[in-house]
Specification:
With 444 residues, the protein is of the alpha/beta class. Helix content is 28%, strand content 26%. A hairpin with a 5-residue loop joins strand 9 and strand 10. It is globular and about 65 Å long.
Length: 444
């Protein structure tokens, strides 16, 4: 059955339903009935500091012209590598906006060459942090400091993945699921002139939002404490706006830092941004970290809230996932595009986007090279043949926004800036589910 994508595809859930869903999810993760024990899955983790050492241009807002003026909290890159039967899968999370300015391939190629990976075996993802350096290799356009930072980042990422692969050891994995209110639909409807309305970037808490927090616990056999935790949650990391000039990991980055500090002992906590093209933090685009009179800065508060929910789920996920074959596939597809200025109709117009799918047993990962609306991710998750499917955006590319078909009538920033046309959401979901089904049926 073809997944339906839209603002009201799923009825609102009552509190009692959500509690029951959490209980059922916990029972699923603790059953272990679908997994037969095998001992040859291995995993390795690594982390590296990627905080800029000199002032740089920060990404995400064209209105921000000056260089950064300090560091509030450090930036990091984190890798989780899997290996089984000669097949590899490496998930990399970096505290950055994304791979704009054609930086995805140079960074990926540095890793692939150094670590001898196949292209589909690498999911290089950004958390969409708007308080991190602009990635670029264009000195004339973006300045020497940012170009130098990006060139150095290529080497650091290659070393990072190499270290994760060198750390490969037997592993036990377990899943858990929670929920967080940090993210909210940002397409706010406001009155316009003439009695009409328009969409602005704000807060629309009445729109259905996928608030699921997905958690993967990584532990060594026979050890109580985890060595890693991967989490996936759908929101922009934009609690800090264009008036902020301090380097920060923002929502996802602060959550990563919280978890690594809370659990200690060298734990690595890579975070990933789910389908969040129309999702922002509840408190968004602040000018600074307000601390006067004991005030807790909202970015720190929201990042900590997300981290605490991950920690709560992590401490309850105790059953390992086994029978875990490792497979992956990737392709670039053409989605319906907007008409060119010379054409009035979009007929024949297309725009490309990268899709990467991977599996570790009955756990699937989907990497989309763009900013995909929340409802599209939710539709793919609910129709996936895998027990759990994690959506990771800003992965292996930066194609732009993929709005819903219905959003083109409403308008708004995402629609205006997107290279895609109506129906791109449905085509992306269809092709992704096709790839997931093929991956699910491939047990060799």
């Amino acid at each position: 059955m073809k997944p339906r994508i839209g603002l009201r595809t799923t009825p609102p859930r009552s509190k009692s339903f959500l509690v029951l869903a959490d209980v059922c999810a916990c029972l699923l993760t603790c059953s272990g009935n679908s997994f037969a024990a095998e001992a040859d899955l291995q995993a390795g983790l690594a982390k590296v500091d990627i905080t800029p050492v000199q002032p740089v241009k920060l990404a995400g807002y064209e209105s921000r012209k000056e260089f950064s003026k300090g560091v509030h909290d450090p930036l990091g890159a984190r890798a989780l590598a899997f290996e089984k039967g000669g097949k590899h899968l490496v998930l990399v999370s970096i505290d950055n906006l994304g791979f704009y300015n054609n930086t995805a391939e140079p960074l990926r190629q540095a890793i692939l060459d150094r670590c001898r990976l196949q292209p589909s075996e690498l999911l290089l993802c950004a958390i969409h942090d708007h308080s991190a350096p602009t990635l670029t290799l264009n000195v004339e356009k973006d300045g020497a400091p940012n170009a130098e930072y990006t060139k150095a980042l290529a080497g650091r990422l290659a070393n990072l993945v190499s270290q994760a692969l060198e750390d490969l050891k037997p592993v036990q994995l377990s899943l858990g699921f929670g929920s967080s209110p940090v993210g909210v639909n940002r397409r706010e409807v406001v009155p316009n002139t003439g009695g009409t309305s328009k969409i602005v970037l704000g807060r629309n808490p009445w729109a259905i939002t996928d608030r699921e927090v997905q958690v993967l616990r990584v532990a060594r056999p026979g050890q109580d404490k985890p060595v890693g935790v991967l989490f996936d949650y759908a929101t922009h990391s934009t609690s800090l706006g264009p008036n902020n000039y301090l380097v920060s990991g923002d929502i996802h980055g602060l959550a990563e830092q919280f978890l690594e500090n809370y659990f200690g002992a060298g734990l690595v906590a890579p975070g990933f941004a789910g389908a969040s093209g129309n999702i922002d933090p509840w408190v968004r685009v602040l000018p600074d970290f307000k601390t006067n009179n004991g005030w807790v800065p909202e970015p720190v508060l929201m990042g900590t809230m997300l981290g605490e929910e991950v920690a709560r789920v992590l401490e309850g996920a105790q059953t390992s996932l086994t029978n875990t074959i490792v497979r992956s596939a990737s392709k670039t597809i053409d989605l319906p595009g907007k008409p060119s200025p010379e054409k009035q109709a979009a007929s024949g117009s297309t725009s490309p986007i990268n899709i990467t799918v991977a599996r570790v047993g009955d756990l699937a990962f989907v990497g989309w090279g763009g900013e995909v609306f929340n409802e599209v991710g939710k539709a793919v998750k609910s129709s996936s043949p895998f027990r759990c499917t994690m959506i990771m955006t800003h992965c292996n590319g930066a194609a732009g926004y993929v709005p819903l078909r219905a959003s083109y009538v409403e308008g708004g920033y995402e629609v205006q800036s997107s290279p895609f046309g109506p129906g791109a959401d449905e085509a992306l979901a269809d092709e992704t589910l096709k790839m997931l089904r093929e991956l699910h049926d491939s047990n060799r």
